[in-house]
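Lab meeting, action items carried over

1. Structure of the two-component assembly. Owner: GW. Status: complete.
Input record:
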Amino acid sequence: MATSKPTVAVYKFSSCDGCQLSILNMEDELLDLAGALDIAFFLEATRSARPGPYEIAIVEGSVTTEHEVARIQDLRHQCKTLIALGTCATAGGIQALRNFADSAQLATAVYAHPEYLKFLKTSKPISEYVKPDLELWGCPVNKAQVLEVIAALLAGRKPNLPAHSVCMDCKRMGTSCVLVDSGTLCLGPATQAGCGAICPAMRRGCYGCFGPAGQANTESLSGTLRGLEHYQGEAARLLRGISGYAPAFRTAADHVLEAAEGVK
Amino acid sequence: MKTIEVPAMARVEGEGGLFIALENGKAVEVRLDIYEPPRFFEGFLRGRYLQEVPDITARICGICPVAYQMSSALALENALGVIVSKEIRALRRLMYCGEYIESHALHMFMLQAPDLYGKESAFELAEAEPETIKRALRLKKAGNQLLKAIGGRSVHPVNVRVGGFYSWPDPTPLKALLPELEWGLDVARDAVLWSNTLTYPELEVDYEFVALHDDHEYGLMGGQVWSSRGRKLSVTDYEKAYIEEHVKWSNALHGHTVDGSTYIVGPLARVNLNHAQFGPAAQRAINEAKITLPLKNPYKAFIARALELVQFLEEAIEIIHGYAPTGPAHLDLTLKAGEGASASEAPRGTLYHRYRLDDQGLIEFAKIVPPTAQNLPRIEADLLALAPKLVKMESEAATRNAEDLVRAYDPCISCATHFLKLKVEERQA
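Predicted assembly:
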């Protein structure tokens, strides 16, 4: 099809499909979006699939197999702009919990014949293999942010994405602090905004699914969290969750675990 | 040797391929190769704290996170021997209604309808049938708004915990959704009429249908497990009748009955087994559209989904009308060691969970049986039945027909990995 519209491909790696679904969940904008873009490859939405090169490739999921390593390297050559979509693509996702465990043992817990499986010992972000042009965090991503990124790319400008923490959003929204009020462990002070601070609004602590904020003082926070634990190991588990392989949270969890060892 | 290869399967959640082996022109073997990478959820759940489980298992599937959250919560509550209040149960049902509306609208109109119209995608269908797709998107949005009002967001909502909810959602935004849901109920009624006028590929199968059953409501959470072969069990005995096997070509486990036979879960099974528990709107819709039950054609899961849209829209409206939260939004749990199992009906079929806890509330063992793992052997059997027809077709047409069948099941390969490259291999006898 001859067209001047930018070609876009949406690819899936190891993931739950939720971030791609966030694209399909733009109910009000989806048809306009499909009109403004030349969707060349998006298996969740269409069976017509064209090979690269693409102007924009959007990648959901983390890299967990040799095949995916080859695929992401190939895709990097096939596109001008590579967007890592969601916390699997930016930090390895929940399946990166295998990076802290013996993956062979994990496989045995699920499968009768682990020898049938082909997988890497780690689940890693796209950036550990190729350089993405943009990383959009979230588990799942915020669809308004996806739209902003696409609109910015089409207009040739820099996307306007928040750099502050969830904590700031709570203050703006007038949500009283769950950490101060009820001693609930919360990663809000160290987590990137973008979700709308929904967890504290529901009276629970933030679990960091949008990844660490740029200026996060995770050291000070992890000390506070350890002091508020309701059960042993709560702070380390909170840090080592959805975004647990993101460097700032990874280091903070290590410190918390070391401190706990020291007390013993 | 003749080999035909086609691109990965579209409009399903996750990735896989289809392999058909021929001997003297006759199909002898059909395999769905699932190459969606394994993620080992049951492995890394071990050692996690029970309240983390609903947030972690939600990430198994972005399309039906509520199903994972509910099955987790129900199984863990069974392990602790607690039962939630009627109010909490009603809100759980309402949240599940949101997921059904969103997921069924997505699957019917955006994933399966393009097949029934011979189109490549909903975008292409939107050019031919703009009003249908616009209505579908609006309906899907209503489901997502309901999820957001209860759970903070539609994908991986954050309000579900073992024992109930973190907090009662504000009634105002819920009540504000009523007009949109009333509109949706009309759209769903029309969709039932429309669904029964479409032409479906011919294939009637004597399936064993399996679904949760409740005498007093449309089976959704816990209760009994009924089979169309007459088997009735408590949900906690699920594994006594239905087991999983690890086959070489698939990162998704394969389910079968203890007798080794295939069975299917999902909308066809639910509607066939539980239509007597439908509310007045869905009962009327069956009569108005003159639908003959049971439905035994896998493509007609489309009709079953349309009926369920009516059911869950009607229920959502009813629950919101009665929503006046009182008492605590969740139980205070006393930790103790134990084991518990339960299941709930994900939009694509029965989702069973079993957990063992230690006395500190940490997971010692987790087992999750997703719907697609249970349906895979049956999908393969259906494809084998379809194979004589497929091998006479051109490669493109054969792929398309095979894909249409697989898509009709609404498989969630991400959940089950546990889609489609068609490879036909001609073997010498």
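2. GW to write a short summary for the group page. Key points so far: The longest strand of chain B covers residues 338-346. Chain B touches chain A through 69 residues (CB under 8 Å).
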